[in-house]
Each structure stands twice: as structure tokens, then as C-alpha cells.
Amino acid sequence: MPLTRILRLGLRQFAAGMLSVLTLGILNRVMKVEFGLNLTLVSVVIGIHYFAAVVAIPFGHRSDRRPWRGYHRTPYIVLGTILTALSTALAPFVAFFLASQGGSLPAVALGVALFLLMGVGMYVAGTAYLSLITDLTVEEERGKVVAITWAMMMVGILVGVFVSIRLMEHYTPQGLVLLFLVMAGLLVGLTALAIWGQEQRGPARLSQDALTLKQAVRLLTISQQTRFFFAFLFSGIFFQFVQQMVLEPFGGDVFGLSLKETTLFNAYQMVGVLLGMALSGAWLARRVGKKATTGLGSAVTGIAFALLVLASLGGYLPLVRPGIFVTGLGMGIFTVGGLSLMMDLTVKEQVGLFMGAWTLAQALANGLASVGGGILHDAGLALFASEAGAYALVFGVEAAGSLAIIALLVQVDVRRFRTEVGELSWHLFGEPE
Question: I need a labelling partner for 289 at 20 to 30 A (CA). Which of 71, 101, 126, 214 fits?
Fold first, then answer.
């Protein structure tokens, strides 16, 4: 695939990166610090969008079997993007309503409904997008394509940070609304540019040649290698992202940093991510292999979270920014290795199904991590009676978990996966994959 085509395809990830700053870098901080809402409540309302990923498997499977006018992936990307942009534009108004109602049950229900809609859009589009990348690439070039497109997402996060600071250096209701509207518009425009003309028309699989959804789900659950990788991917994402709802509040509560200073946490982390991805995509993954690269990323992340534990307990502000940078470095290494491995763990004609399964693993882990971060913080606050102790508990759990899950990764074997899935398809359904 030519570099220019990869870069254009990556514009969708660039836009997604910009958008993520809004909910996980600004809205969570505003709702906790400026609005004074309980962090568990904030985590549940915003984090609920991850649980909409249950649509990933059926929509991924549907995109394999049911093209629209010959296009398998593009219509689902378009539909998901429209839903995501609409819910993004409405998000500030729901946050205002939550604050004005003091987190009442009807207000929480409205917030949950909106963020679930956002999640449906994200995962319908995201599963089809991953499937499109897999369709357009061969196995040998996926590490490079993943590194470039996901690096563009990290650059998008950096750009999103600076656009957000420019539009709203200090919190104002008008600034929050303007920021979300601008980002929603950019998402639609950049996604359209990214996918225009990328996919070639292709026929639907004949019904007698395709697995039914029930058979497909059975194949996913009966394969031992599928279960191993699902467990590893879920655990890896969970322990890396428990911090995503608490990092900016951590800076405000423990060190008294401003909205601008805590929003810049995203920039420190993303510089680390970009460096990690550059190292992995350009050299490391080819040198030591995708699996070893993924394990190294998890180990680096675990060490970085241990630094943040020390920073929180000791009140050492000079450790915070380097610690955040190194978490990003580990995440970048993990991302290239893990996503390349994930794309290898598919079988021909069922790409959407397996991408749906891996997307579901990531999203459920992200959702539980978001909610879990708030719950761990509040439990730590009750246990230690200090914000420093509460945040140290969150980072400590992440450090231990990131190191422990390497034992799961050792069990994953791409060759064994393909042999196993082929044999199971023949045995269960009379058709080898």
C-alpha cells in the first residue's frame, strides 16, 4: 500500500484521537473538579460508551455478509461516524443538565443513553475500519500500516490537546459547547476524506457459504487460542487504561494544577506513545517479533505506573510528567505489537467477525477500566482518607496487572490459532476456513 494512501486512511484515526481528548481529558475533569460531581458517577456516565461494543461482533459479521451496493465496510463507517458526531455535539448539554440536577437519577439516565449512542457509533465505525485495513493489507505490511495509522491517532490527540487549550484555556460553558461542536464537525469531514474511494466493491458471500451469527459466536468461544488472546487483550487494555478517567483529576486534586496543565498530561503521554510506536513499527517488531514487542510494552507500562505511585504518595511533582511520558512509551510499544498480532489472528472471509471479537475485548476492558478507575479511587479515599493514597491505589493496581498479564501472552500462538480455527470450522460446520 502506498504511503500516501496509508496517510489518507489514517485521517480517520487522527480525527478519533482529537475526539478522545474531549471526553477523557476535558469533560471528565470539568465534571469532577469544576462541577464537583462524584468521580464514580462521572466514570460510569462517560465510561458506559465502551459497553456499546457488544454491537461489534454482530455488525462486524454483518459487514462480512451483507454489503450495501457492493461495499462491505464503508457504509458502516459512515453510519457510525454520523452517530458519533451527533452525540458528541450534544454531550456538553447533558453534562450541564447532570450538574444542575446534582447527579439525579433521571439526569444520569439521560447521560448514560447519550454516551451509549456515542459508543454504538464508535464501535460500528471502528470495527468496519479495522476490517477495511485488514482487507486492504497483506500480513507482512500490517505492522507498518498499524504503526502509521495509530501514530496518526496519537498525533490527533496532541492536536486535540492544543486545539482544546486554544478554544478553552479556562473553563466556560460557551467554550465547552464550541469545542465539542468544532470537534464533531472535524470528525465527519476527516473521516469522509479518509475513506473516500478506499474500498472496492465486492459481492456478498453466498448464504450457504457463510457462517450464521450463532455458528460464528460458537466458533469464537470454542477455540482455545481465541479465548487466550481475548483474555490477554482484555487484561492488557484494562490495566493500561484504569488511569484514563483519573489522570487529569489526579493533577488537580493532589497537586492543584490548572485545567490547562492537566490537559497537557495528554500531550506528555502521547509523545511517549508516538516514540514507542515509531520504535516498534520501524524496528522492534521486525527484530524481536510481534509477541515479544507486545510483552515488552506491557512491562514498560507497569514500571511507569510504579513511578506514579511514588509521585502520588510522596507528593513529588517532578516525577509526574516523566511517569506519564513512560506510560505512553509502553502503550505505544504495546499498541503496535498487539494490533499487528490481532490482525494476524483472523481467518479469510471472517475478518469482520474476528475484528468484532477483538474490538469487543478492547472496549469492554476500556469500559470496566473507566468505571473501575473511579471506583478504585473512591475506595482508596475511604480507606486512606487522602487523595494521594486514593490515586496511588489506582496506579498500583495498574502496575501489578500490567506485569502479571505477560503470562497470558505466552500462551498465544498465531499458527496454532489458524490450525485450530480451520479444524473447528470443518468439524462443527463442515466447511474449513
Answer: 126
Where is pLDDT greater, at 261 or 208?
261
Q: Give me the helices (H) in 257-350, please.
A: 259-263, 265-279, 285-288, 290-314, 317-344
pTM assigned to the model:
0.71
CATH of domain 3-195+212-429: 1.20.1250.20
Closest Cα to residue 228, out of 379, 406, 68? 406
- C-alpha cell belonging to residue 59: 455488525
Give the span between the Cα atoms of 126 and 12, in whole angstroms.
10
CA distances from 101 to 87, 313, 418 (A): 20, 35, 53
Provide the residue ranges of all domains of the chain, joining segments of one domain with +: 3-195+212-429
Is 237 strand, coil or helix? helix
Q: What's the pLDDT band for 208 if we cut at 50, 70, 90?
A: very low
Highest mean pLDDT among 115-129, 151-165, 198-212: 115-129
d(CA 338, CA 335): 5
307 vs 399: CA distance, rounded Å: 9
Comparing 66 with 408, the larger pLDDT belongs to 408
Q: How far, rounded to the nearest angstrom, does the alpha carbon of residue 28 sit from its chain's CA centroid?
A: 16
